[in-house]
Design a protein that fits this description.
The complex is a heterodimer of chains A (117) and B (114).
Chain A: E1 4-7, E2 10-13, E3 19-25, E4 31-37, E5 43-50, E6 56-57, E7 68-72, E8 75-80, E9 89-96, E10 106-108, E11 112-116
Parallel strand pairs in A: 2-11
Antiparallel strand pairs in A: 1-3, 3-8, 4-5, 4-9, 5-6, 7-8, 9-10, 9-11
Chain B: E1 3-5, E2 10-14, E3 19-21, E4 24-26, E5 32-38, E6 44-50, E7 56-58, E8 64-68, E9 73-78, E10 87-94, E11 103-104, E12 108-113
Parallel strand pairs in B: 2-12
Antiparallel strand pairs in B: 1-4, 3-9, 5-6, 5-10, 7-8, 8-9, 10-11, 10-12
Classes of the chains: A mainly beta (117), B mainly beta (114).
């Protein structure tokens, strides 16, 4: 399965600032997913990022708050804009194995733990 | 609505004892089911998955899960728990279409006592 590197692994940010999280995959993948895991909560899908097209956002998430870039088949970034303490979460990048595996199995990066003060 | 329910927020098991973590799902199409484990400070690791066929699936680290369509369940089991199994466990459901994301349950925290 793919190996995913995320950075930063953790950061402490000030209210009102923005932070960009990078996700690098060791193989070319069509789709990448960004999830958020709030403290003590499950994973919530933020958006799906396809190379060469606009990301598709889930209900409750908007592009102005979470802009995503997908410049090529191995890289994506997620920016958390104008942060507030409610944005304190772990943000995870994931990729799916393609149809050759028979179903969409997700592999995850180690996550980026953001704390907003 | 599509959802995954993990009824137990926190479970404590003695080392060497058996373990069962519950998972119930609601999904409109044929469900593809997964169990992931998240150790402190780590990303999610796939333990096992069910697509079709034998309803009892084997995974890594000695885990197994049984799919019961009539009960909409996919419970995770291990006959003898090790201290290193202490972690957060997530059940997830998805489809067989490439490019579709998974829906996760809220997770169950497993503590192992000596």
């Amino acid at each position: 399965s793919a190996v995913i590197s995320q950075k930063p692994s953790r950061d402490i940010c000030q209210r009102g600032t923005s932070l960009t999280i990078q996700c690098q995959v060791d193989s070319q993948v069509t789709m990448m997913f960004w999830y958020r895991q709030q403290p003590g909560q499950s994973l919530t899908l933020i958006a799906t990022a396809n190379q060469g097209s606009e990301a598709t956002y889930e209900s409750g998430f908007v592009i102005d708050k979470f802009p995503i870039s997908r410049p090529n088949l191995t890289f994506s970034t997620l920016t958390v804009s104008n942060m507030s303490p409610e944005d304190s979460s772990i943000y995870l990048c994931s990729v799916g194995q393609g149809p050759s595996s028979g179903a969409n199995v997700l592999t995850f990066g180690a996550g980026s733990r953001l704390t907003v003060l | 609505a599509q959802s995954v329910t993990q009824p137990d927020i926190h479970i404590t098991v003695s080392e060497g004892a058996s373990l069962e973590l519950r998972c119930n799902y609601s999904y409109g199409a044929t469900p593809y089911l997964f169990w992931y484990v998240q150790s402190p400070g780590q990303g999610l690791q796939l333990l096992l998955k069910y697509f079709s066929g034998d309803t009892l699936v084997q995974g890594i680290k000695g885990f197994e899960a049984e799919f019961k369509r009539s009960q909409s369940s996919f419970n995770l089991r291990k006959p003898s728990v090790h201290w290193s199994d202490a972690a957060e466990y997530f059940c997830a459901v998805g489809s067989n279409q490439a490019g579709t994301a998974l829906i996760f349950g809220k997770g169950t925290t497993l503590s192992v006592s000596s």
